[in-house]
């Protein structure tokens, strides 16, 4: 019996997380017939987006769940600072400006917001939290997509695009061919692909494969299949394969999907040491939202890719509790023993640190005046002696959130192919986040980039489909 030919879609969206859903919803709102192909089975749909909690938004005055004002300039300066200038200013400002409106659109599709959670993240002014977290957001979008007639196929790993005369004409998932007028790639980075990570990070000075001790904080399905395919097909890329959002997570975290619960947020309240019990960076340089994504990389550079966060009783209750309990001891010697560190080296490091602390008025909510003097590396804020038992220690390893190597896009989210924007191929979310994030991170901007560019990509893909009809 002859097989039925696949229908001809206006827009095929590759992926099943936030960026894909924003693209699918926007394309459907523009009147397009939309197919979404998600590689994960339905219970695991939604990619890294299910793990999220908030989105960073500019606003000129207090809004429902956002305090104060967070202007375009301040948001842009934050991005400029964390990326050390490795960002495309035009695209970054486009994201920042559009972030002012995106919550109205999100609400229309069933997303609810709540005030920021307490803890070390200092986010009440800048970030709006999703009621029920990212899982609730993703589920709301899937419901809205169903209402708008979007077709979703799960367990469909898209592995190539088909081109004809410079235009993309179909999407292939294994043996299936889906003809279409335009495509949005919103299928994440390559963070889940351990072989690619290994190749990118290579071996360190101790002969270790740096990526061997990585944990992938989110989905196992972001294998970078389409990123690799597009790179082979001549797409222009941005970013470097070792740049990623990379935080320090509890070393007991699972290889995939440990999520937010394995992150350890106490670093700025104590000290961080390596296997030799030596400090290696300023734990109090800036607020945690601008620094938490630095520590994974710093730990990755240490022998064994392991770090140890050490705090005392004064830090208890001041940070979001992690899912795993820390090692606890009544003396630093005993704590060192439990963490397999040299007791002599750890007590020496702590006594040098304690002696260097100049304690003013401790306030974890501001860049306070508690700092060290004459210590290398310094601790610039929140420096208080570790002198109050019990002491606590967490073993931490690098936790990759998402990679920054991505497809170069323009303001319409069109993928750049050898210097020219593709007619009918668009990208959104992690797969193009490197245009804005060349390095570093500030909390909540992943969802901002995915939401803003997802909506642009969906609208533009629908327009491209109309103009080709
Ligand atoms: C633990 C954790 C917490 C986070 N918290 C926040 C936060 O609070 N705020 C914030 O802004 N960001 C946060 N992030 C980052 C955020 O998750 C990402 O920036 C954002 O979700 C990216 O959305 P996306 O749609 O591009 O990717 P994803 O949500 O990862 O979606 C990619 C999708 O593509 C699918 N896919 C992959 N390859 C293929 C293929 N070949 N064919 C078909 N489908 C494919 C995957 O199955 C997946 O559904 C967090 C990430 C993690 C892991």
General description of the model:
This protein has eleven helices and 21 strands. Helix 2 crosses helix 3. Strand 7 (160-164) and strand 8 form a beta hairpin. It has two domains: 9-189 and 224-239 and 404-468, 3-Layer(bba) Sandwich (FAD/NAD(P)-binding domain); 245-399, Succinate dehydrogenase/fumarate reductase flavoprotein, catalytic domain (Flavocytochrome C3, Chain A, domain 1). With 469 residues, the protein is an alpha+beta fold. The chain has helices at 18-29, 72-83, 89-108, 133-147, 194-201, 225-232, 288-291, 295-300, 332-339, 343-356, 445-468; strands at residues 9-14, 34-37, 54-56, 113-114, 127-130, 151-153, 160-164, 167-173, 176-185, 215-216, 237-238, 244-250, 271-273, 307-311, 327-329, 357-358, 371-372, 391-403, 406-407, 414-417, 420-427. Strands 1, 2, 6, 7, 8, 9, 20 and 21 form an eight-stranded mixed beta sheet that branches. Strands 10, 12, 13, 14, 15 and 18 form a six-stranded mixed beta sheet that branches. It binds flavin-adenine dinucleotide. Flavin-adenine dinucleotide is lined by residues 14-20, 37-40, 46-49, 51-55, 157-158, 186-188, 217-219, 221-223, 225-226, 259-260, 401-402, 429-430, 444-447, 450.
């Amino acid at each position: 019996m002859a097989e039925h030919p696949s229908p001809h879609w206006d827009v095929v969206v590759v992926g099943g997380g936030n960026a894909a859903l924003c693209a699918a919803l926007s394309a459907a709102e523009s009147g397009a017939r939309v197919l979404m192909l998600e590689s994960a089975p339905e219970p695991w749909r939604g990619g890294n987006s299910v793990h999220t909690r908030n989105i960073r938004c500019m606003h000129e005055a207090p809004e429902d769940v956002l305090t104060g004002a967070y202007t375009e300039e301040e948001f842009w300066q934050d991005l400029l600072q964390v990326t050390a200038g490795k960002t495309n200013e035009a695209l970054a400002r486009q994201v920042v400006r559009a972030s002012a409106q995106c919550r109205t659109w999100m609400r229309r599709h069933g997303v609810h917001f709540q005030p920021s959670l307490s803890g070390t993240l200092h986010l009440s002014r800048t970030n709006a939290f999703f009621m029920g977290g990212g899982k609730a957001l993703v589920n709301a979008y899937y419901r809205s997509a169903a209402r708008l007639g979007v077709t979703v196929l799960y367990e469909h790993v898209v592995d190539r695009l088909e081109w004809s005369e410079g235009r993309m004409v179909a999407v292939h998932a294994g043996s299936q061919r889906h003809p279409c007028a335009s495509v949005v790639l919103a299928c994440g980075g390559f963070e889940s692909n351990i072989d690619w990570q290994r190749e990118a990070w290579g071996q360190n000075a101790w002969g270790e494969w740096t990526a061997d001790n990585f944990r992938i904080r989110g989905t196992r399905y972001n294998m970078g299949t389409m990123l690799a395919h597009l790179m082979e097909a001549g797409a222009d890329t941005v970013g470097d394969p070792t740049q990623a959002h990379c935080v320090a997570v509890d070393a007991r975290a699972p290889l995939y999907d440990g999520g937010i619960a394995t992150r350890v947020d106490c670093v700025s309240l104590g000290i961080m040491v390596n296997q030799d019990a030596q400090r290696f960076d300023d734990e109090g340089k800036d607020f945690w939202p601008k620094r938490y994504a630095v520590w994974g990389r710093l730990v990755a550079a240490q022998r064994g890719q392991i770090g140890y966060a050490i705090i005392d009783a004064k830090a208890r209750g001041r940070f979001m509790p992690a899912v795993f309990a820390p090692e606890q001891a009544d003396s630093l010697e005993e704590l060192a023993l439990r963490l397999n560190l040299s007791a002599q080296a750890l007590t020496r490091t702590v006594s040098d640190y304690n002696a260097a602390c100049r304690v003013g008025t401790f306030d974890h909510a501001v860049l306070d005046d508690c700092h060290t003097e004459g210590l290398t590396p310094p601790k610039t804020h929140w420096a208080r002696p570790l002198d109050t038992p019990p002491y606590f220690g967490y073993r931490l390893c690098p936790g990759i959130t998402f990679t920054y190597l991505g497809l170069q896009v323009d303001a319409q989210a069109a993928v750049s192919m050898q210097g020219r924007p593709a007619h009918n191929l668009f990208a959104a979310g992690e797969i193009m986040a490197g245009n804005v994030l060349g390095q570093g991170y500030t909390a909540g901007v992943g969802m901002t980039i995915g939401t803003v560019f997802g909506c642009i990509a969906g609208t533009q893909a629908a327009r491209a489909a109309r103009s080709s009809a």
